[in-house]
């Protein structure tokens, strides 16, 4: 087992909680505002209720674009200055969103906030990598993610609590307040973790060559896009989730609880995946989960047709299918990165860029189809599952359930 590197900067507990808090700012910026969609639309004069979903899409697009920037910048100038600048930018953009006088202004500020927020996840991984490697790094990243997963579960409840006492603009003020606390903590306690000897100059040609390797690798490219496709189904639900509980089930007050139940499903899937993937292999686990995802999507479509107003059935099916996305997403990302050990940083940032932008666009398309029923989400899940399967079949040349470097079929 690999041991921690010599330049550890914080105790494990503080490091894990700090990194999870940094990542949590992104989850808050997306999930906590969902309960405020009706008031936000009314306050900004948005007539078409589906248009308010662009507040989420804009942030996701900013995050995707920012994925290309922060990795190379932090490799060149260090983790600390890029992280501090990004959190400060996140704060300023949150305050600008709070004072937005038009929907267009809000969308622009959300893109900018997403650009800043993109650094948070990228730099957490880099900071942990600077101090640990191998199993030690994987163990801490898993723990950080488990701590972080508590945020999507409670974020809508937090947003709903704010709305009990203040307007929708106060939710953006909350983002700023939380980010100020994190900024102060990072400023006081986190020194630079990048060894000056490991600083890498920014070389556009080298980045271009790395990105070319990614897009010309058949299997990696297919897993990258397939991962974004299934994530797009998740974003499609996320965009229309508040409207589903409000208009379809006439249960707006239950939305934070229902959202939390689904988030728990994803958390359990990630927890389970971390414990079975080495035993069964990333391909076997993720491809099995993809077939289950498609089967459940068929069940969702049937339920949407024959029992469209059954909230318990909807919750059960979508919670199970979100869990399948938990099994698919992380494993597809790992498989897509396997060929690029020598250019891991550049390849990871490029893949995250493509995956997030693609997923955000798919999610926007699914969300904009909302018509008062759950059918668009169900059909969106089914379409995404079938497209992802086609991509994996193409990337693996028709050979599924194989171990890396073999073509041996592993029976289910």
Q: Care to describe what's here?
A:
- With 412 residues, the protein is mostly helical.
- The chain folds into 2 domains: 13-202, MFS general substrate transporter like domains (Growth Hormone, Chain: A, Up-down Bundle); 203-401, Growth Hormone, Chain: A (Up-down Bundle).
- It is built from 15 helices and no strands.
- It has helices at residues 12-31, 37-43, 54-77, 79-98, 103-131, 134-148, 150-165, 169-189, 204-215, 218-248, 255-280, 282-306, 311-337, 344-368, 375-395.
- Helix 1 runs antiparallel to helix 5 (103-131) and helix 12 runs antiparallel to helix 13.
- It is globular.
SSE string: HHHHHHHHHHHHHHH
The average pLDDT is 87
CATH architecture of the largest domain: Up-down Bundle
The SS-based structural class is mainly alpha
Give a brief outline of the structure.
This protein has 412 residues and is mostly helical. The chain is 77% helix and 0% strand.
Keywords:
2 domains, cell membrane, transmembrane, 77% helix, MFS, single chain, mainly alpha, disordered N terminus, cell inner membrane, 412 residues, Bcr/CflA family efflux transporter
List the helices and strands and how they pair.
Layout: H1 12-31, H2 37-43, H3 54-77, H4 79-98, H5 103-131, H6 134-148, H7 150-165, H8 169-189, H9 204-215, H10 218-248, H11 255-280, H12 282-306, H13 311-337, H14 344-368, H15 375-395
Helix pairs in contact: 1-5, 1-6, 1-7, 1-8, 3-4, 3-5, 3-14, 4-5, 4-8, 7-11, 9-14, 10-13, 10-14, 10-15, 11-12, 11-13, 12-13, 12-15
